[in-house]
Amino acid sequence: MADLKVQFCGVEFKNPILAASAEPTLSAHNMKEVIKTGAGGLVAKTVTNSEALRRLTRRSKFRYLDEEHQICQGKVPRLFTFYGRTGLAEETPEEWMNELREAQTAALAQNCIVIGSVAGTTVESWVTLAKMIEDTGIKLIELNFGCPHPSEMKDTPTGMLVGQDREAASEITYQVTQSIRIPVIIKLTPQVADVVEMARAVQSAGASAVTVINRFVGFCLDIETGKPLIHGWAGVGGPWVKPLTLRWVSKIYTGLNLPISGTNGVYDWKDAVEFLMSGATLVQFCSVVMLKGYPYLGRVVKDLNQFLDRKGYGSVQEIIGIAAKAALTYEEMESLPREVANIDPEICTACKRCMRSCFYNAIVMNHKQVQVTDACRGCGLCTCVCPVPGAIQLFPQ
Ligand SMILES: Cc1cc2nc3c(=O)[nH]c(=O)nc-3n(C[C@H](O)[C@H](O)[C@H](O)COP(=O)(O)O)c2cc1C
Fold this sequence. Notes:
This protein is an alpha/beta fold and 397 residues long.
């Protein structure tokens, strides 16, 4: 059995699989359901002083969409889109602390780590909320600089509006980290030009780690009615977002010395491995848990363990960041050996699909045979569209 334990900001997690801050953690009851699964931890639903964001949760609207962005009924594909609108914890901060204390008691008995999450609307309210979390005995706190909905709301200066404003993000991070002793994690928004720069800014202001990354705002509609789904703009994401998230996870991993908690685009244990290999130490699951239920998290932990054993890794730690470290820069790629495509005339059926997809015009018909010319760049697209296994292969030039 591989060692699943990871250290994150000085806190030991029994495994790196977490429930993200969202509906599966919106009450002590829900958090206890997560704790029972054997997950290494959870991020509690974000608590806020914004009444508008508390009200929004009372009008939550969610839809799973298929590959054509049609609303799913019963069958939800692996690459689903989760389109939805919800707010933050419905309870007032005072009420919420009771939920957190109850969850924290249950978590301690199971060696599960509860991370608190807050979103204020002024510097003072961020600090007050953070202090309230610390007073519950919780060991880590996430500041939610990524909630997408404030961008569509009036007079709600929190979430991604903070995450897009370098000065505000730095000031809040600085004031909170100066006011509490527990490590502060900043949950970033993807809706900035350069997430690494924002991570660097909050690190300089005192953040101990970053959560990469919250959701986008999108617009999905029904062409039959000419109307938007669920009445308008909403948060959008799903497993297809993973490569976009992993770009930032890997860039922050290689560019900054800062622990990363990964979220946005994970579906199963394989995705968790991808997050880990890209540089995340923790992996947070949300919309797939809302699809498959709490016990799914336990299965992910088991499957992750099996993968590590099968590959002969002794611990999770061994795989963290290995793919990020193996990535070459565009300049380094210039010294790689050139490749060219080669067609096996014995099995090629001359279907011409490779010719249709070769925009370097390097594949030609010659006496009823498909042939590769010197114009081949070795891009590899022909190997993807060829329906005959092995008929086109790339070889070093
Ligand atoms: C219904 C819903 C509610 C969410 N609520 C919060 C929240 O309160 N605080 C927060 O930081 N992120 C919130 N998120 C973002 C999730 O924590 C998570 O980062 C995001 O869904 C991406 O993960 P996924 O691809 O596993 O769904 C919410 C997401 C969803 C779908």
